[in-house]
Write a structure and sequence with these properties.
This protein is an alpha/beta fold. Helix content is 37%, strand content 19%.
């Protein structure tokens, strides 16, 4: 039951929720009335380890008794070590820490603008972005998001952003001008409905960017940290971008964002050009260390690939069984979608009533984002709930 105080004291930028969630464990959540749910939202691709993983809890408790915050006026050993681990997983470069995906993308946009201001290319301050993408709610990240759903009411946004169709290399190339300094997109469009970038598309963009000295910026906020069956979604294609934004699953529930910057641009930010009060705190970095430790120990990147294949196969069986509904299965790893003709809100409600939590997305899409350590029998249970809910369509 939702408290009357919810509407009384909270700004109404979110729709009134259907549930009040009070407890979580593993892949399960419980509401204030004691009802149990399978959580296939993972806090929108955040709780990649499930809820309250004991090792993650232990590490946060330990660090909280040592040091939680001291600011970036000082060197923070946990931050330095985390940056080293991320560089080893991505490639030569450096890391800037922040608090969220929007902030990581904001820093990435600032990197592109700052890079353009250096040397003889000060006029190359425009960024090409994919249509149907989503990069966050801050004014810079919102300017890089094409959908009017998010932009309405916030004009004037930042100038210098131009949009091309996702997975259309020719369209991107056709929009490049002497003012283009960067290309920015997601390897898998999450909020846009789980659309996966083709390997050839990313490889083509990499070649174009290299030949024209353009920064390739990749937003891995939702697709990163093991969710697609690679540590970062773009790594399947074998490309090497100029910068990568990360967040969500990096802290598995504790807020942390990060921007990896490749070697040619790693020293663009200099003292005073950018900053953050809470970014990369000892506690946040300890949470991320725990995430990386558990992922390596439990082989969760490979698990996401294998379990994702199993879940996708089961969803495709339902697609065939309910062919009259014109269902479509999209995605990779444990970042999957069930798209349909009809508005999915009624189906999402039926799934919730039947004990499964999922999240909607653009284009009549339902996202399925279970924890990477979801058990196979829980996937089977979720499929049974989806099938039962589809029968009531």
């Amino acid at each position: 039951m939702i408290s009357n105080d919810h509407q009384k004291y909270l700004v109404s930028n979110y729709a009134l929720p259907a549930l009040s969630i009070v407890r979580g464990q593993g892949t399960k959540l419980w509401d204030s009335e004691g009802n149990e749910y399978l959580d296939f939202t993972s806090g929108i691709a955040v709780t990649n380890l499930g809820h309250n993983h004991p090792e993650w809890v232990r590490q946060l408790n330990k660090q909280s008794m040592i040091l939680t915050h001291c600011s970036n006026l000082f060197s923070i050993p946990e931050q330095v070590r985390l940056a080293k681990r991320l560089v080893e997983k991505i490639g030569p470069g450096k890391v800037l820490f922040c608090n969220s995906g929007a902030e990581a993308n904001e820093a990435m946009i600032k990197l592109a603008r700052l890079s353009a201001s250096h040397g003889k290319n000060g006029h190359r301050n425009e960024i090409l972005v994919a249509e149907n993408g989503f990069h966050g709610r801050t004014m810079g990240a919102l300017s890089a998001t094409a959908s009017s759903k998010y932009r309405n009411g916030f004009d004037p946004l930042l100038p210098g952003f131009h949009f091309a169709p996702f997975n259309n290399l020719e369209a991107f190339v056709s929009l490049i001008t002497e003012k283009t300094g960067a290309i920015m997109l997601e390897s898998v469009q999450g909020e846009g409905g789980i659309h996966v970038a083709d390997d050839a598309f990313l490889q083509g963009l990499e070649k174009i960017c290299a030949s024209r000295n353009i920064l390739l910026l990749l937003d891995e906020v939702q697709a990163g940290i093991g969710r697609t069956g690679e540590f970062l979604g773009f790594q399947k294609s074998g490309v090497m971008p100029g910068a990568v934004a990360m967040a969500k699953g990096l802290g598995a529930g504790f807020p942390i964002g990060a921007l990896w910057v490749g070697k040619p641009w790693e020293n663009i930010f200099t003292p005073g050009t950018h900053g953050t009060t809470f970014g990369g705190s000892p506690l946040a970095c300890s949470a991320a260390h725990s995430v990386l430790d558990i992922m390596e120990k439990e082989n969760l990147v490979q698990a996401a690939k294998l379990k994702g294949n199993f879940l996708a196969a089961k969803l495709n069986e339902l697609r065939v069984k309910f062919s009259n509904l014109d269902l479509e299965v999209r995605g990779r790893g444990l970042m999957l979608a069930l798209a349909m003709r009809k508005e999915p809100a009624p189906l999402i409600k039926r799934m919730r009533d039947n004990g499964l939590l999922v999240v909607g997305a653009a284009g009549n899409t339902i996202r399925l984002l279970p924890p990477l350590n979801v058990k196979q029998d829980e996937i089977v249970q979720a499929i049974a709930i989806i099938e039962k809910s589809l029968k009531d369509q």
